[in-house]
């Protein structure tokens, strides 16, 4: 996959919904799933490329919509459980149906999405509307036949994995064995088998005996893409632990511990909370992990624990504004980060509907904007620039003009092509790169 | 002074955020509570170190002036009365016969009895910039912590069963809630992070009391 040197993208699709809380391509990139705050999942499917419309290059249209989670009430603790979908993860396709995991704060569900394009007709005992016939009126017998019908996509919940998490689930990750997956909350990580819903195996537990001694929580977790015994989890203290499930049943002792020593010149009042890692992702190769904290994205080599191999500043101009960002709660925003298919470019979101791409090879970066005003369909996205003081050039935007209510927390990258999905609050943008 | 004000403001803000997070849909978030308590602790340390700094600079101000022992104590008492919170509960600090930082926060009526004499050791010089306030452990605090520990367990037991939010109605009395929380804060043991039993009732960071916190509680009660 040739990396896009010039980062030329255009908007190919946009949709409106409730506030989008997660975005994920499936393994082929044919499907794109979004979860929202209302507990709904919307799946988009890429059109088959046709000879007549080669310039359209396969656009995404709505394929299926279903209500995954409903609000619930925990009577024991007098707490409402939000229906917001925190994460969606696809299973690799093994038959005609598609399977995905979706989770809210407490419950993970396995959904089967399948197509129905035929229906049986010609029943003996009921009529076409399904009403029972009077047996006395039946004089002949016939065999029902399957007749084509309009395509219907149905989603059915095949498994519900509930009651295994005391704290709020922040991550789910499908294992490369395709038989198990893990779910992580603030203090524990559980391992599940897809076939078994009434049991899960606890593999990480960082809850202290005395809760007053709590100093860090788990913020994200992911399985290694190829080694089914290996996973990583990140913490609120900015550290990453790599664990090997072969070492012991309870992986409280890590195999590797990744931590960068703090730069004393950057120490500030809010240092502790901005070092919290909000997302961790393995590269497709499995050689690297990428972490996102409030101001930076870091790439770590699995073989080097004492510091990252690359650090990218996402929006360093916010470093002097941390107090205001604490006041308006923005400092708690959890940004995600993604790799492109070849692991050569990484992407993450920022404020003002800006998102950033960093090319690891050329060390070039670009800031783009996802907004209806600034991107018409098929118009090329213009790189944006934030002015950090001094003279502001014509097309630049000053830090004080940034809209902090417009944040891009969730993005996704097609597994093999340069197609990206960007969730800007309640709008989903899909950008493709320009075909020459 | 600016630093003190800012730290105080951040502490008040953090208290408000912590209270507000109880009302959120989905219940109290452990991560958020932990982050808020970290900020509160940093703000508190900053406030205390700034206060000590301000006081020490006042104390050490006139080395050349004739040091009349009769002059100093009333001046110190005056300055401590000024820096002491507008808090009716605190008796005005007695004139000190030594040139120590009397630190008004120690005369909180709610606290267990404090040591009469404060440590005379100066804080390390690295505290001169407020940003480093969070780095250096507070020796004074540790001494107080030991004495507070005995009083802590009974308080903790009381705090373990707070009534659930819903039982208090949709808009629980803010003053009542905060006073209940902060009376615990003023008396409990020194563990910094919040406790969060599965009921997700996170407790604010526990540190020995000081009058600033009393002021905070009173300020919020006023609303």
Automatic annotation (TrEMBL), chain A:
InterPro entries: PP2A_PR55 (IPR000009), PP2A_PR55_CS (IPR018067), WD40/YVTN_repeat-like_dom_sf (IPR015943), WD40_repeat_dom_sf (IPR036322), WD40_rpt (IPR001680). SUPFAM superfamilies: WD40 repeat-like. SMART domains: WD40 (SM00320). Gene3D superfamilies: YVTN repeat-like/Quinoprotein amine dehydrogenase. Coiled coil: none annotated. One of its GO terms (cellular component) is protein phosphatase type 2A complex. Keywords: Repeat, WD repeat. The keyword Transmembrane helix does not apply. One of its GO terms (molecular function) is protein phosphatase regulator activity. Belongs to the phosphatase 2A regulatory subunit B family. This is Serine/threonine-protein phosphatase 2A 55 kDa regulatory subunit B. The gene is PPP2R2B.
TrEMBL record, chain B:
Pfam families: IER (PF05760). Residues 56-173 are annotated as: Disordered. Signal peptide: none annotated. Residues 125-138 have a biased composition (Low complexity). GO terms for biological process: cell motility; positive regulation of transcription by RNA polymerase II. It comes from the Eukaryota. Belongs to the IER family. This is Immediate early response 2. It comes from Rhinopithecus roxellana (Golden snub-nosed monkey). The lineage of its organism: Eukaryota, Metazoa, Chordata, Craniata, Vertebrata.
């Amino acid at each position: 996959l040739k990396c896009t040197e010039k980062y030329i993208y255009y908007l190919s699709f946009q949709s409106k919904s409730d506030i989008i809380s997660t975005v994920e391509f499936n393994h082929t990139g044919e499907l794109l799933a979004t979860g929202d705050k209302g507990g709904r999942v919307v799946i988009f499917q890429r059109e088959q490329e046709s000879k007549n419309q080669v310039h359209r290059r396969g656009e995404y249209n709505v394929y299926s919509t279903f209500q995954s989670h409903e609000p619930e009430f925990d009577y024991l603790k007098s707490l409402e459980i939000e229906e917001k979908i925190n994460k969606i993860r696809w299973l690799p396709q093994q038959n005609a149906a598609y399977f995905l995991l979706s989770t809210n704060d407490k419950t993970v569900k396995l959904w089967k999405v399948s197509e129905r394009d035929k229906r049986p007709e010609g029943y003996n005992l009921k009529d076409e509307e399904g009403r029972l016939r009077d047996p006395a009126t039946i004089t002949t017998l016939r065999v029902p036949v399957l007749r084509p019908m309009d395509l219907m996509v149905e989603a059915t919940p095949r498994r519900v994995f509930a009651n295994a998490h005391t704290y709020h689930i922040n991550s789910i990750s499908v294992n490369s064995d395709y038989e198990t997956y893990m779910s992580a909350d603030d203090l524990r990580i559980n391992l599940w088998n897809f076939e078994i819903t009434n049991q899960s195996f606890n593999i990480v537990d960082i809850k202290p005996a005395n809760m007053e001694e709590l100093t860090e929580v788990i913020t994200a977790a992911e399985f290694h893409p190829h080694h089914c015994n290996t996973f990583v989890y990140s913490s609120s203290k900015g550290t990453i632990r790599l664990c090997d499930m072969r070492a012991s049943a309870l992986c409280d002792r890590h195999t590797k511990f990744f931590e960068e020593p703090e730069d004393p010149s950057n120490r500030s009042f809010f240092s502790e909370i901005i070092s919290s890692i909000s997302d961790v992702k393995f590269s497709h190769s499995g050689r690297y992990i990428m972490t996102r904290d409030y101001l930076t994205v870091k790439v770590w080599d699995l073989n080097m624990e004492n510091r990252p191999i690359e650090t990218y500043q996402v929006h360093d101009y916010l470093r002097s504004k941390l107090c205001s960002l604490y006041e308006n709660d923005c400092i708690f925003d959890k940004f995600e980060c993604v790799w492109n298919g070849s692991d050569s470019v990484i992407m993450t979101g920022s404020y003002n509907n800006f998102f950033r791409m960093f090319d690891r090879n050329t060390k070039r970066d670009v800031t783009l904007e996802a907004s209806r005003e600034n991107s018409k369909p098929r118009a090329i996205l213009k790189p944006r620039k934030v002015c950090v003081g001094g003279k502001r050039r014509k097309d630049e935007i000053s830090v004080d003009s940034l809209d902090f209510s417009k944040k891009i927390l969730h993005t996704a990258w097609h597994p093999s092509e340069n197609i990206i999905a960007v969730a800007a609050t309640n709008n989903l943008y899909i950008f493709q790169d320009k075909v020459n | 002074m600016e630093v003190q004000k800012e730290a105080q403001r951040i502490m008040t803000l953090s208290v408000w955020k912590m209270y507000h997070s109880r009302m959120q849909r989905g219940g109290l978030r452990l991560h958020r509570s932990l982050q808020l308590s970290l900020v509160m602790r940093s703000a508190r340390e900053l406030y205390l170190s700034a206060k000590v700094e301000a006081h020490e600079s006042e104390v050490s101000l006139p080395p050349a002036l004739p040091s009349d022992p009769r002059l100093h104590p009333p001046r110190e008492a005056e300055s401590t009365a000024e820096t002491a919170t507008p808090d009716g509960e605190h008796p005005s600090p007695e004139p000190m016969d030594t040139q120590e930082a009397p630190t008004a926060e120690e005369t909180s009526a709610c606290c267990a009895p404090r040591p009469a004499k404060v440590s005379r050791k100066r804080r390390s010089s690295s505290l001169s910039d407020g940003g480093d306030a969070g780095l250096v452990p507070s020796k004074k605090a540790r001494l107080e912590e030991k004495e507070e520990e005995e009083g802590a367990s009974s308080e903790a037991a009381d705090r373990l069963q707070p009534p659930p939010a819903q039982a208090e109605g949709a808009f629980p009395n803010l003053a009542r809630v905060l006073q209940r929380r902060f009376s615990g804060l003023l008396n409990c043991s020194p563990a910094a992070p919040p406790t969060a039993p599965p009921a997700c009732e996170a407790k604010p960071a526990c540190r020995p009391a000081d009058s600033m916190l009393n002021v905070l509680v009173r300020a919020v009660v006023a609303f």
